[in-house]
Every structure is written in C-alpha cells, then in structure tokens.
Specification:
Strands 2-1-3-4-7-6-5 form a seven-stranded mixed sheet, sandwiched between helices. It is globular and about 40 Å long. The protein is built from seven helices and seven strands, in the order E-H-E-H-E-H-E-H-E-H-E-E-H-H. It has a single domain, classed as Domain of unknown function DUF4159 (Rossmann fold), CATH 3.40.50. The two termini are 16 Å apart. The protein has 235 residues and is an alpha/beta fold. It is 30% helix and 19% strand.
Amino acid sequence: MLRQATLFIGCLLLMPTVAFAKAPGELYRGKIEWARLSNPDPQWHRHADSDPRLLQFIRDNTTLNIDTTWYAANVENLREMTAYPFLFSSGIHFITDEDGRKNIREYLLRGGFIFIDACINTDVNPDPDAFLKMQVDAFQAILPKFKIERLPPDHPIFRSCFAMKEGLPHTYMKDIYNPAWAKHGLYGVYSGNRFVGLISLSGLQCAWAGNGPTMEHRINCMKMMVNIYVYVVEH
C-alpha cells in the first residue's frame, strides 16, 4: 500500500489575502513532504528552487506539517515514488520507456496522485494544445482504462480551502494575456471512478517562482496549489 500521512487541515477566513489559516490551539499532525517526479524531461526540476516559497506558504497558512525542502522521486524507482502520495510534475510526455510507464501505472493504482503543471515559458512549451495532447497520450499509454474531463468552475477543488472567486489563475509569458493558454482549465484524470491525476496549463509554478504581474497574482496561484493539494489528500 502507498504510504499515507495522517492529515488535519484547518480552514479559517482570517484575512483578505490569506483566507486559510491555523486555528488557535490546533496542532500539526503527520509529516508531509513535497516531491517532484524525476524523469527524462530536461525541465522536470524547473522552478524547483522556488518550491520552498510555496511550502513555507503552506506551513504559514494551513495546519499541514509540510517540510519546506523539496524532494525528488525517480520514475525508475517505484519505492521512491510510493513514499509520496502526491507527486508534482512539469509533464510526463518524456517518459516513453516501459519501465517508467509501468512504475507510474503501479503508483497510480496503489493510490498515488500526479499533478502536472505546464511551464508557460514558450521556449519550453510553445503550444499549450500540443502540451495537453502529449499528457493525454502519455496517460493513455500508461493506464489501460482512463478518462480525462475538464473540471467545471463550480468544482469543489476551487474552494476546498481558499475561495477562488475569480476562478483559475493563469500566469502568462512576459505577463501578456494569451487566449491560447487562457482557454484551458483544469483537467482531471480518472482511472475508473478514481481521481488519479490533474493537468494544469496555468503556470502555477511559474508564479511562485516570482513570475506574474503582481504579488496578489502570485499568492492566488499558491492558494490554488493549496486547494489542489488539500482536495487531493482529503479524497
């Protein structure tokens, strides 16, 4: 069985910018760690040096006892992968060998979850539609029975802790609005009826790495990441 951490998550409306916080007297329960999926993608660790900023935000604003160090789980090592119930990835399209795909399949079937967030740098991902298709094709090769659905705007993931009143935040290359990216929402990946993955083309990681037009935008992207993480670990 995939090793799961015991979680206790408190959500309080305490202030306008950070509406999710530790309640007085509540204690952290269970050690949580954040890991990226190490794989042949040369960009798998892009922005990883900024992950501690996100993790500190989680510690400061939730009851999750999350380590502020980011870790790596190699796709060629199932034991490393199953140490983490949630894995972050910049894309799984470079995983083409059968051993790596078999490990992802086993990881997901054991209860693991993979969140994919595209970097919005057009030197890395020039075409968002092509990026999405590559992720869909990869999941199709990995899971024998799967489906991908765009999550509706009233899905509880958008309010699991922070109420995202303006919907899914998007980061854009050089802060220039781009409809090719803006049209995409969150895409849930399901094996049977079980939620096993999520694909984002919002560049959430780009925002906590310091990109985006305002600090408010960067915070909103971190809030959305918290919503995703909390929703997944609670379900």
